[in-house]
Amino acid sequence: MYFLFRDQAARHGTRPAVRDEQRTLSYAELADRAEALAGSLRERFGDDDVRIGLYCGRTVDLVIAVLGVSAAGYTYVPLDPAYPESRLDFMAKDSALAAIVSDRVLSGALAGIDVLRIDGDDQGAAAPPREELPEPSPDSTAYIIYTSGSTGRPKGVAVRRRSVAALVRGVLDQYDFGAEDVWTLLHSYCFDVSVWEMWGALASGATLVVVPSEVVRSPRATIDLMTRHRVTVMSVVPTVFRYLAAHVRTSGHWPSTLRRVVFGGEAVDAADVRIWRATAGKHCEFMNTYGITETTIYVSTRTFTDAELDAAGDERGFAAELGRPIPGWEVAVLDDAGVPVAVGETGEIWVAGIGVAEGYVNRPDLTAERFRMLDVGGGPSRLFYRSGDLAVRAAEETYHIVGRADLQVKINGFRIEPGEVEVALRGIPGVLDAIVTAGTSRRGEPMLTAHYTSESGLSPERLRELFAAEVPAHLVPGAFVRMTDLPRTASGKSDRRALSEELTESRFA
């Protein structure tokens, strides 16, 4: 995997590779520092197959750490300094970390683990010759990223080097990313989109701008940073983009150099794209992706056309088309019997191919449940990952994602997808964003609760009235809760689990 960067370092040694608000490193400088770190790690662990934790802030040092562990041939495990001690302790023990690379002194749950301090200003003085570094097996593990589990216990997803290399090569070969581009590293390195942001930029000879966490939390600061650094490529979760688009609309200020937005992680709302285009113009391309951590970030991609975005108009949440699988990936939409669905039918998305992960760390039961050998379409039996995502077959080779199988709820005999209600709520004037959760009423009956933010101070009572006039009665939530902000995960996605079910009578209608 490291060769993706190494080849560009040999070709573009003097070009800027990565920068934060304090430092800029050229490709040659970044290679020297990464390989110095790799040499230090190999002096300690040699050819052992070890896992190295990364505990760094959002600076250039983070990128040095990722590249250094990869160059050494080891597995990196990202540990977010913002995580609770209990989660860090679980991740460190579950992944059996041999050491941690950090830009700070460790304490608490991580204090007893061997630490290698990284200081980007000092790295590189004794970098070993590049030919001394190993060429690890493509089937070895590149990284382990922990995702939330339904039981509350995080799941460590182990992803191979060949999967990352295939993903980066496959997408770069399909689209015109190049050395003149400037990318953002907008996401936490504990979220797998960061893998694409880092390796996609550095494998194409582009410049990567590390965005500080305090900037990410502010739409204004994010837009200002992108303008200042003349960013051309941004990968972003649609929830975050919604707030960026709203700021662009109200401020009239946008990064004029931005030419491509890569969506991922959630369904895209066409209205947010329309808001951006209405202010910033139509020169920027919007690329939609579908992907899962267990299938190496992305599975399929497609670029929205001007015609379909114009046709969407003010429509909220048009059904996202699945797109074309990346070369080496395979998508099947199957019914409960494991048979491909017919046109007009809905089924669950299963993914096969080079991107399918090794499985879950120390979770053989869950691995066996989600990763299965199937002979779909009469071909040879091959490993598929069961996504839990639902899609409808709109045409022979066209699928539209419609929601999650595990979020559906049955109320008064109606099977309801909360995402459908969220989309409809966002279409109500005055509603900026919404999350719908399923719970139980005081009478013990199933009930939907709509949590929303409003630009205009729209009251829960008024929203209920407006919403009831737009949708069938069974889609009207039992409670409406106005919030200042909706909770988000470290990756920027809407965080349903963080929403409290203990609502006071005064806050909802």
From TrEMBL:
GO biological process, one term: secondary metabolite biosynthetic process
An annotated Gene Ontology molecular function: phosphopantetheine binding
One Gene Ontology term, aspect cellular component: cytosol
Residue spans of biased composition, Basic and acidic residues class: 493-509
UniProt cross-references to Pfam families, sorted A to Z: AMP-binding (PF00501), AMP-binding_C (PF13193)
InterPro entries registered for this protein in UniProt: AA_adenyl_dom, AMP-bd_C, AMP-bd_C_sf, AMP-binding, AMP-binding_CS, AMP-dep_synth/lig_dom, ANL_N_sf
Gene3D superfamilies: 3.30.300.30, N-terminal domain of ligase-like
Protein name: Amino acid adenylation domain-containing protein
